[in-house]
Write a structure and sequence with these properties.
3-stranded mixed β-sheet, 6 helices, alpha+beta, single chain, about 10% strand, about 170 residues
């Protein structure tokens, strides 16, 4: 199994565990969004989610809160995501001496592993079609904004993706 496939599958497993834990206390349809957040190096990851109730309490003061995963505070147990971060750090450190263009290619590959894992979970019906799925950086540079917008379009309905991309300004 390639490193990409190992990381992608570990991400699928972590997403499924986090979603199943969330669904122990909330209905699937109550989830506004589920996000995987990373940094610009794509060498660590964590997950967050937002319920309709949580978003509706905050929307009067922060209209876009339902679209900004790095602002969400709800999460499940993170044991698998901590292990996943270790895999990402190992992958990234093997690429850290690469020239700048390779650095961008390498972090794009790592980001793509996250997106493909989310896509698989969406395809398996883990999330309601209206639930925003996002993969994004906590403080994105230009490439990460582009990757997040592309992921938004790839993972969501046209309507949800349009709102997300408008918020991301892309």
């Amino acid at each position: 199994m390639t490193r990409f496939e190992t990381v992608r599958q570990a991400t699928v497993d972590a997403i499924k565990q986090a979603a199943f834990e969330a669904y122990q206390t909330i209905e699937k349809e109550a989830l506004v969004g589920f996000g995987i957040c990373t940094d610009d190096d794509v060498d660590s990851v964590y997950h967050v989610y937002a319920t309709r109730e949580w978003v509706s309490e905050r929307e009067p003061d922060y209209a876009e809160i339902g679209l900004i995963s790095v602002e969400w505070t709800q999460a499940s147990e993170d044991t698998l995501f901590l292990s996943l971060s270790k895999l990402f750090r190992e992958w990234a450190s093997s690429d850290e001496n690469a020239p700048r263009p390779d650095y961008d290619v390498d972090r794009t590959k790592r980001f793509r592993a996250l997106v493909e894992a989310m896509k698989e979970c969406r395809s398996e019906g883990l999330f309601d079609a209206r639930t925003l799925l996002s993969v994004s950086s906590t403080d994105p540079d230009g490439l990460m904004i582009k990757l997040a917008c592309d992921a938004g379009r790839h993972l969501n309905t046209e309507e949800v993706a349009a709102s997300y991309c408008k918020m991301m300004d892309c």
